[in-house]
Design goal:
This protein has 11 helices and 10 strands. The chain has helices spanning 5-12, 19-31, 33-37, 47-54, 63-76, 93-103, 117-124, 133-144, 173-184, 209-212, 216-223, and strands at residues 201-208, 229-235, 241-246, 258-259, 265-269, 279-282, 290-291, 306-308, 318-320, 339-349. β2 (229-235) and β3 (241-246) form a beta hairpin.
C-alpha cells in the first residue's frame, strides 16, 4: 500500500463506486502521512493531497526532509529541469521561476524557520530565488541576528508524537524543548521556540501534586536523593507556569541550609500554549542556589521561588517569587500565589 500510494489514490477517485477506497486513502494520509513521502511513486502524487500532507502539524518527519522531498516532487513535474536537486548553481533564472510556479501552493506550508543554521545555509540558501524576498530576508536575519524580534505569523515547529519523553498535565513538548535547550545552553535566543523541537531527554515523573499531594514531606519523600530534576508549577487562576532546574540532589534538612551549584535556573511561561517570551533566570549567587529545609518544597534561592508550609505534613500555603539570588525575577507580582498543580521530573538522557 505505502509503496504505491499514488496509484491507489488516483484509482480510487476515478469512480464513484470506490468510495470506501477513497476513504481508506484519506484515513491512511491522516494516520501515516510520513509513509507517503517514502513511497516509490511519491513524485507522481497530485498537488492537492501533497498540500494536505505538508499542511499537517503532526507530520512525523524532520522539516529538512519534507523540504527535500518537495524539491524532488517539483523537479519531477517538469522534465525540462535538471532532476538533480543538488545542482541549483547550474539553473537559469527561468528554471527557478518554473520551479517556483510549480511549488507556489506548497511553499507557504514549509516551516523554514524550524531549520537549523546549517540546514538553512546548505539546503535553502541555494534555492533562495524560489522564496519571496521578504521571507528570505527574515529567515536570513533569524540566523544572523537571533536576538531580533520574530513576527507573530510564523508557524511553530511540527508536533512530535512521543509519549516516552514526558507525561505531563502542565507542560507540552514545546516547553520541554525550551527547557532542554536551556539545560544544554544552546540556542537561547528569540527564535529558539520556532526551531525544530529539541528533545534529547526523557522526563521521568517523580511527583504530581494532584495525585501524590502538596505537602513538603511528600516532596522530600519522593524527590530527595534524586539529581538532575526540574519542577513545573501551575499557578491557580492565572495559568502561569513557574519552575526551576536543579542539576544536583534534593536534600531534606531540619535547619535552613542551601545547595550550591552554578548551573541551576528558574523560569516562567505565560501558560502552556504561550511559550514565545519565556523568562529564564540563572543563579548569580551559587551558595544559595537551592533551599533544603524540610518545610519547603522545590525552592530556589532564599526567596526567588518558594513553596512552603510551617507544618511539613500540610499543603503548601506560602508560595511566592521575590528576586534575590537569581539574575532576575520570573514573575511581576511579588504577592503570594496558590498552586493548581505541580510536577517534579528527573531528567534522563535518551538513547537515540
Amino acid at each position: 500500500m505505502e509503496q504505491h500510494f499514488e496509484l491507489i489514490y488516483r484509482t480510487s477517485f476515478q469512480s464513484n463506486h470506490l468510495l470506501e477506497l477513497q476513504q481508506f486513502c484519506i484515513d491512511f494520509m491522516e494516520k501515516s502521512p510520513e509513509k507517503i513521502f517514502k513511497s516509490f511513486d511519491f513524485t507522481s502524487l497530485p498537488e492537492k493531497p501533497l498540500v494536505q500532507l505538508i499542511k499537517r502539524d503532526d507530520l512525523q518527519m524532520k522539516e529538512i526532509e519534507i523540504w527535500e522531498h518537495l524539491l524532488n516532487w517539483g523537479l519531477a513535474q517538469n522534465q525540462t529541469l535538471d532532476p538533480d536537486p543538488n545542482t541549483p548553481n547550474k539553473w537559469s533564472d527561468n528554471d527557478f521561476q518554473t520551479l517556483k510556479n510549480i511549488l507556489q501552493n506548497c511553499l507557504p506550508f514549509i516551516r523554514f524557520f524550524s531549520l537549523s543554521s546549517k540546514e538553512f545555509l546548505q539546503k535553502v540558501r541555494p534555492y533562495k530565488k524560489l522564496l519571496e524576498k521578504q521571507l528570505y530576508e527574515d529567515l536570513l536575519n533569524s540566523h544572523i541576528n537571533p536576538d531580533g524580534k520574530p513576527s507573530d505569523n510564523i508557524s511553530l515547529p511540527r508536533t512530535v508524537k512521543n509519549d516516552e519523553i514526558i507525561d505531563s498535565e502542565i507542560v507540552n513538548l514545546n516547553i520541554v524543548s525550551t527547557i532542554s535547550r536551556w539545560i544544554d545552553k544552546i540556542d537561547n535566543n528569540n527564535f529558539a521556540h520556532l526551531r525544530e523541537l529539541y528533545l534529547p531527554y526523557k522526563f521521568q515523573l517523580l511527583l504530581r501534586g494532584s495525585s501524590d499531594g502538596f505537602s513538603p514531606k511528600t516532596f522530600h519523600t519522593l524527590c530527595d536523593g534524586k539529581s538532575i530534576t526540574v519542577a513545573f508549577i501551575k499557578v491557580k487562576e492565572t495559568e502561569e507556569i513557574l519552575g526551576g532546574y536543579n542539576p544536583i540532589k534534593w536534600v531534606s534538612s531540619s535547619d535552613l541550609t542551601y545547595g550550591k551549584t552554578k548551573d541551576s535556573f528558574i523560569f516562567s511561561f505565560k501558560n502552556q500554549n504561550n511559550f514565545k517570551d519565556p523568562i529564564i533566570s540563572n543563579i548569580k549567587n551559587i551558595d544559595y542556589a537551592l533551599n533544603y529545609h524540610a518545610n519547603y518544597g522545590p525552592c530556589f534561592g532564599s526567596s526567588d521561588l518558594i513553596t512552603y508550609n510551617s507544618n511539613e505534613d500540610r499543603d503548601y500555603d506560602t508560595n511566592y517569587c521575590n528576586e534575590c539570588h537569581y539574575e532576575k525575577k520570573i514573575r511581576d507580582a511579588e504577592t503570594r500565589f496558590s498552586i493548581e498543580d505541580y510536577e517534579v521530573y528527573q531528567i534522563i538522557k535518551r538513547q537515540v
